[in-house]
Design brief:
The chain is of the alpha+beta class. It has four helices and seven strands. Keywords: Cell inner membrane, Cell membrane, Membrane, Protein transport, Transmembrane, Transmembrane helix, Transport.
């Protein structure tokens, strides 16, 4: 039998620990060397700093403001005094005895005049008419000689009331031309007779006006 295989020198197990320690030392050396090597990046360096916009400040020119002086006050206009009379202070006597229980002396109230109610119409269903018409009126009016000589022409308006009986009442000139024509117009109106005015079939008093024209003829 060969007893050399069982010798301790021939057993490889005894070298495991040595190989293991050598491997660990080799790995540590490699790691230490790798950390010391500087790796350069293949990428280009990127400038991360943004360019700031440069703001140009305009120079402000300071201007001097001219102070405008205030306008001078207007001179006072002297007021004329009517006279140099000194008004004396009036003395009011407050020592007079006044009894509040006595009735006050008040002036009597003015008499109120009762307004007369109008007893006539200004417009009715059937207005009064001159008997004989306008022809009778101008046939009976007399042209004053004074007006003829003065060449006075124009229109005279007479206002009056026609009663229920057709009579003329309260005639008066409301527009005249003078020269005697106003009086001549009143006279012819006083002589005129009218058919009375009617309201709802009944004769009533009516206030009306009548123009009379004075015109010279050659």
């Amino acid at each position: 039998m060969d007893y050399r295989r069982k010798e301790p020198t021939a057993n490889l197990r005894t070298y495991y620990t040595i190989f293991l320690q050598i491997a660990v030392i080799a790995v540590l050396l490699i790691f230490i060397v790798a950390t010391k090597i500087e790796f350069q990046s293949s990428q280009q360096n990127v400038n991360l700093v943004e360019e700031q916009e440069v703001l140009e400040m305009e120079e402000v020119i300071q201007t001097d403001q001219e102070e405008i002086p205030a306008p001078p006050p207007k001179p006072q206009v002297p007021v004329e005094v009517p006279n140099d009379e000194i008004i004396e202070d009036q003395e009011i006597n407050l020592d007079a005895d006044m009894n509040l229980n006595d009735p006050l002396d008040m002036p009597p109230p003015p008499d109120e005049e009762e307004e007369e109610e109008e007893d006539f119409f200004m417009a009715v269903e059937e207005m009064p008419k001159i008997k004989g018409g306008q022809e009778w009126l101008y046939d009976n009016v007399e042209y004053p000689e004074r007006a003829r000589k003065s060449n006075i022409e124009g229109r005279v308006t007479v206002q009056f009331i026609v009663t229920e009986n057709g009579k003329v009442e309260d005639p008066k000139v409301i527009r005249g031309i003078g020269g005697g024509c106003d009086q001549a117009a009143l006279e012819v109106i006083k002589k005129a007779e009218f058919t009375p005015g009617r309201q709802r079939g009944k004769p009533v008093r009516v206030k009306m006006s009548q123009p009379i024209v004075f015109r010279l003829t050659n």
